[in-house]
Amino acid sequence: MRGRYIKFKPANDKIVDIAFDATFRRAAIHQKKRREKANKKLAIYLEREDIVEKVRQRKISSHILFVVDASGSMGAMKRMEAAKGAIISLLLDAYQKRNKIGMIAFRKDRAELILPFTSSVELGEKLLKDLPTGGKTPLADAFIKSYEVFDREIRKNPNIIPIMIVISDFKPNVAVKGDYIKEVFDACEKIVEKGINVVLIDTEPQSFIKIGIGKEIADRFGFKYYKIEELSKDKLLDICKGFVEY
């Protein structure tokens, strides 16, 4: 099949081009329940509704949403500065590439859309000029807010490539309503179903005791995962190269 694989869609009766990555991610969230019901042991339990096909297109716009932990944990300022630098660099070429960039920052008790999707360098510089840090880590609200932002954007333009880059030490301590870990996982299930490409950049400092859940989220939902303690604009841009031309 020709053309770049950009997203997936429900499979037709005649399956031609299976999106194996997305199919396995969709099936992954049901494995425990299916394994309990199965009469035989399998490496993975697939059902017809899991199967999705690749959507390919040569030229299409990418919508990249940076979701940045601005809480009071160590390294918050470095995360913000690295993200701001990468966003401005991406915006410099965004108009030519037809891409749009956005940013959500999360701190205290909520996540906030700081930069709506745009290709304007001027708007990016204006809205990202002053970004406060500090407070707790509402990771669940960050995933929920990101899903909502992409859901609105995909409804307007279903042909975009949705890319979500989460930068955090993944130590949630604020719930929207109840169990913040469950809320994170529930939001990730919706993100997988929507076909959003997710990259997790874990900045948790190396130690004998691991507190963050970044790797657990990545393994559970099939998200791309990078462990980077000393984050920089250039390292972020190198990661972006694997998902979008700029």
From TrEMBL:
Residues 63-246 form the VWFA domain. It is an enzyme of class 6 (ligase). Keywords: Ligase. Its EC number is 6.6.1.1. The keyword Ligase applies. SMART domains: VWA. The keyword Ligase applies. GO terms for molecular function: magnesium chelatase activity. It holds the Pfam family VWA_2. It comes from the Archaea. Belongs to the Mg-chelatase subunits D/I family. This is Magnesium chelatase. It comes from Methanocaldococcus fervens (strain DSM 4213 / JCM 15782 / AG86) (Methanococcus fervens). The lineage of its organism: Archaea, Methanobacteriati, Methanobacteriota, Methanomada group, Methanococci.
